[in-house]
Write a structure and sequence with these properties.
- With 486 residues, the chain is mostly helical.
- The protein has two domains: 19-361, no CATH class; 374-485.
- The protein has 20 helices and five strands.
- It has helices at residues 2-16, 20-36, 44-58, 81-120, 125-138, 148-162, 169-185, 189-208, 216-224, 237-251, 260-265, 271-286, 293-308, 313-327, 343-363, 374-382, 393-402, 420-430, 436-443, 456-463, and strands spanning 388-391, 408-409, 445-451, 468-470, 477-482.
- A five-stranded mixed β-sheet has the order 2-1-3-5-4.
- A hairpin with a 6-residue loop joins strand 4 (468-470) and strand 5.
- Helix 2 (20-36) runs parallel beside helix 5 (125-138), helix 6 packs antiparallel against helix 7 and helix 7 (169-185) runs antiparallel to helix 8.
- The N and C termini lie far apart (80 Å).
Length: 486
């Protein structure tokens, strides 16, 4: 035991001698590996990619609603149109594997940018690496290939640009451009604006306490930054879309809109988020002297938002990275100079990144979740129905993406396109409270694509109805077509 204890200092020195660049490369590659082991499972991604495909094919946004059967004459609402188009282009170039990898790199890149801000302020390499891992773990339930990852990446860049609270005019102009691009890639730039508000509060508090300079630059930039929210093809309509989407999502009790407390009450504890919050609290209590207020205060604002709605955990985790990195940095009186980042370290980093990409690809070559009913959609396509598909919202995306271009769907995951009354009728139909003849009269569907476990009563009605026949079901997906289409 004594011999083991005597070797501990030398082991610590060996670890501290690892090049900082290699330390961070290993951490980032490990995070990427963990992300890529999760398959593509977000059902909304499919209709988002189809939207991007339309833009790529036509060179313009659709003028009218392209998917919903009963709203085909209404103007198209462009939400996250740029992110959808970029993702569609990536998939067109390299298929699902490339899209999945690029999305993972964007996730890692956002956290790495936030870590870079912490490193500029003196955070140690091991602490910075641990902060990346902790942030990714805290938000791991949010990992999903979708345009929202652009929001995380842009947020990390914003933290890097103005993280010291005293950015130059050049950095503020870059940040304004970043906010505009962010809002078009994914409409969540308001999170960055709220974070900026916390930075400004700290800057003015310092000035009031007599610490120059007066923060006019960051203040004017923050006051102008809300213009980025409407700098999209939707213009001022984006505000209304966001408000309606929030209202409907909360009313429908969508999981990501529920508070962490409510999720826990329902048995969905999201332990990884609570671990991250506990680590954040411990750093604030025991390492507060090592923290910068311009990092802590904005992160605290996002903590409150994350507690109130799980969807904000992703951005809070990124905002917490500089806090964790500074808090976990060991303030040694005699620091050991890091070893240079030589060829062996470069090879080790390259091998780490390669393994992070190759191993998940060998494990799941398509990177797609098994629950997605690709075979059921292909089987329905062989029947060559043309018209409206009455469907569960979860299956709408794969129908418009992989199905016939002549198909339109009854519902999809864009909650903001329908009123509460319309959604109430939809849920009533799911529970079998609406007769089949009434659905037939309203929608005139050529097929039903329904989800087992959610629309069982409607499925039972169709199985007993002579006008409909069931195709071979796939997993949780049940398909009916008109019996006259034999």
């Amino acid at each position: 035991m004594t011999a083991l204890r005597s070797r501990i200092p030398s082991v610590i020195e060996w670890f501290r001698g690892i090049p900082p660049g290699l330390t961070l490369h290993i951490a980032c590659a490990g995070v990427l590996l963990a992300i890529l082991t999760r398959p593509v499972y977000d059902s909304d991604l499919f209709w988002q990619l189809r939207t991007g495909e339309i833009v790529l094919d036509t060179g313009a946004l659709p003028e009218h609603e392209p998917f919903l059967a009963d709203k085909s004459t209404e103007p198209f609402t462009p939400v996250a149109w740029a992110g959808q188009t970029v993702y569609a282009l990536i998939r067109r170039i390299g298929g699902w594997p490339l899209l999945h990898v690029v999305d993972g790199l964007l996730w890692v890149g956002g956290l790495a940018a936030a870590v870079r801000c912490a490193r500029r302020n003196g955070a140690g390499p091991w602490a910075a690496a641990f902060a990346i891992i902790l942030a990714s773990h805290a938000a791991f339930s949010s990992v999903s290939t979708r345009p929202q990852t652009f929001g995380l990446f842009a947020f990390g860049l914003l933290i890097l640009l103005v993280g010291n609270g005293r950015p130059s005019w050049q950095r503020c102009l870059l940040a304004m451009g970043l906010l505009v691009v962010w809002q078009n890639l994914h409409p969540s730039a308001a999170i960055g604006i709220i974070w900026l508000g916390g930075v400004v509060v700290v800057a003015w508090y310092r000035r009031i306490r007599g610490m120059p300079p007066t923060p006019w630059t960051i203040t004017l930039f923050t006051l102008a930054s809300p213009l980025a929210v409407i700098a999209t093809p939707a213009g001022l309509g984006m505000i209304q879309v966001s408000a309606v989407n929030t209202e409907i999502s909360i009313w429908m009790e969508i999981n990501e809109w529920l508070s962490l407390w409510e999720l826990a009450r329902r048995g969905d504890h999201r332990i990884e988020a609570w671990i991250g919050l506990l680590a954040f609290l411990l750093v604030l209590v025991f390492r507060r002297r090592h923290l910068r207020a311009e990092h802590v205060v904005p992160a605290l604002i996002l903590v409150v938002m994350a507690l109130g709605s799980y969807r904000f955990v992703l951005f809070w985790a990124a905002a917490a990275v500089p806090v964790w990195a500074a808090g976990f940095t060991h303030k040694s009186s005699s620091p050991i100079a890091p070893a240079p980042f030589g060829w062996s370290a470069r090879v080790a980093a390259l091998v780490g990144w390669a393994l992070a990409v190759i191993v998940p690809t060998l494990w799941n070559p398509t990177h797609l979740a098994e629950y997605v009913p690709h075979n059921a959609v292909a089987r329905l396509k062989e029947e060559k129905p043309e018209g409206t598909i009455y469907c569960d919202v979860v299956w709408a995306g794969v129908l418009v993406d992989e199905g016939s271009r002549d198909w339109r769907v009854s519902h999809d995951g864009r909650f903001y396109l329908r009123s509460k009354e319309e959604w109430t009728r939809y849920f009533a139909a799911c529970q079998g409270e609406t007769p089949v003849y009434e659905l037939d009269r309203q929608w005139q569907p050529v097929a039903f694509v329904l989800r087992l476990g959610f629309e069982d009563r409607l499925i039972a009605l169709l199985r007993d109805h002579p006008g409909w026949r069931e195709l071979i079901p796939e997993k949780d997906c049940v398909v009916f077509i008109r019996s006259t289409s034999r």
